[in-house]
Protein: Aminopeptidase
Amino acid sequence: MPERNVIEGKHKGTKVVSFERTPIMSTYLLAWAVGDFEYVEDFTRRKYNGKSLPVRVYTTKGLVEQGRFALENAQQIVDYFSEIFHIDYPLPKVDLIAVHEFSHGAMENWGLITYRGSKALRNGRKLSKKHRTTAVLYDELKSDQKYKNRVAYVVSHELAHQWFGNLCTMQWWSELWLNEGFATWVGWYAVDHLYPTWDVWGQFVTESMQTAFQLDSLRTSHPIEVPVRNALEVDQIFDHISYLKGTSVIRMLSGHLTVEVFLRGVSDYLKAHRYGNATTDDLWSALSKASGQDVNAFMDPWIRKIGFPVLTVAEEPGQISVRQSRFLTTGDVEPEEDETTWWIPLGLKTGSKATNLKTGALTVKEDTIRGVDENFYKINTDQTGFYRTNLPPARLAKLGEARQKLTVQDKIGLIGDAAALAVSGDGTITGILMFVEGFKNEQSYLVWSQIISSLGTIRSIFADDPEVTKGLRAFTQQLVTQATDKVGWEFATEEDYLTGQLRALLVSTAGLAGHQGVVSEAQRRFSAYISGEDNAIHPSLRSAIFKIAVSEGGQSAYDAVTLDFLNTTSVDGKEIALQALGRVQTEELAANYLRFLFSGRVSVQDVHSGAAALAANAKTRLHLWNYIKNHWTEVREKLGGNMVVLDRFLRLSLSKFASLEIEKEIADFFKDKDNKGYDRSLGVLSDTIKGNAKYKERDLEIVREWLKAHGYLN
Structure:
């Protein structure tokens, strides 16, 4: 609420601030911020009552101009949400504030929304203005363009909560998804409205949906709606299931009902439960009334049952048969684990022009669909449904040849499905490699992002074998060379956002795969940059060039990036440097980096960024695990003050192994410890590593022979 009045306090130099009375609200949403702040401000007029609404972004001294992009978005998004929910923003003010020590990305405190950053650095006795805040601040001249996307989305997500979560709050934490799943979906929906050229739903499919699939394909996953008994359990379900599977299910449902009908039902739900609590069934009832369909009947398994299905397709002349079963990464579903029958929207497009869309759903375990054109069909158009599709190998190859008929989201879905099915054994590793080989001419950043992510998983799992590692590196380099050479190094003035992101991705991938031309140019620009030419590296290429420099440059490059971390004035510079430093190639530098991460010079909430980079690096991940074992008391003490921080650190540090021996080591190490606050993540880690190990054992020799046969190994 706004300040009501300010009077002098009893003690010299103090004051007493009184605020207006709040509406009825949940206590977890209350916040104060005390400090020497500046702000930028704009006003909007409420749609329904016509009153003026002040919108502000607060920062500490010296950073306020970097809040203007967030302010511009916040003002438009408040107006947009008022319009689509048919409810004015409920409070008399909207404040956003940058917080320099914060374990979460942001928090939707009602009317005073907090956004994540890092603490200021100390230069001698003075606090410098080199603050690090990446969830709400953006510098048009110095920031990587990808942070523009991040700021727009996080601002939108938290503003969505002002209605969905704050005005109407879940009944209990077991229904957290009502808050987070919806805020994530409508957050992206608003960003898509403001920035239609960003293709945010393609971004969602390649990033968020694939991440949700990964966790939900494990035995240790949990239903979207899950029992919660204490505060530490609450922390642990702020995970990819509540957020990203929840969002994926909402996207699937809104696609089925149409967005217009879905939002009408949401508006009715908010109006019926404003200033009160609600349940999942309340939302289903409102949507059922708006749509005339029994939403609860077909959505209940998606919310209250664990996992998701894979749709296995068999072909016959003029028709296909489809069978649903639960998908597990390990590929060994037991009958008692496969009792759920999901409602699956088929989204089948077929015909020579790929315009004939069949919108029926599979509501039984197995069925036959007739009238399918054998020349072309695609199930799960635009990857709207939250399920994998297991196609006959010949069909996957045909779809690869008919790429011009596929949308960006179609391509992403096919690549993601083929890669996941290779892990489980339902598909083959040679199938995914042959499929992506045909994408050398691809121009979409989002499709390339999925290709490189899928290849990265394969390279990580087989990284213990030097010969296969060499072959996969050569495969990656050949795959991206043509596109990398085409996109070049220079950013045009009016270039679109996705082209800039494509350049950064391809330069990074090609350089780290050993493309000598890219490596040489990256080193040239890095050398000029550390010599004082600030403009030698475009902000959006800083991450790629820093990673290549550290990977190729040894101690001197490591020292230079460390110095940049300590002195950068860019709001995203610290995160970029931490990720790049994890590319070190020797145990000695890895040891140096780990000491640095725990030295106090890296904010507690940022330690995981460095650890995740070391874990993704095959040459350093074992050293990281050994450090955790040997320095557990220090790690636990430094990060355990906030269990969210420790949980995230362990999850990101240990998830890349593909060894049953390491899995047993981890289990034995934590066996006798008090693991409350991260016990769920230990189960996820165990499942993940076992699945990786099984994949490696089954397919190592197969991939070796394929790489030799196709000229990637001598």
The mean pLDDT is 93.
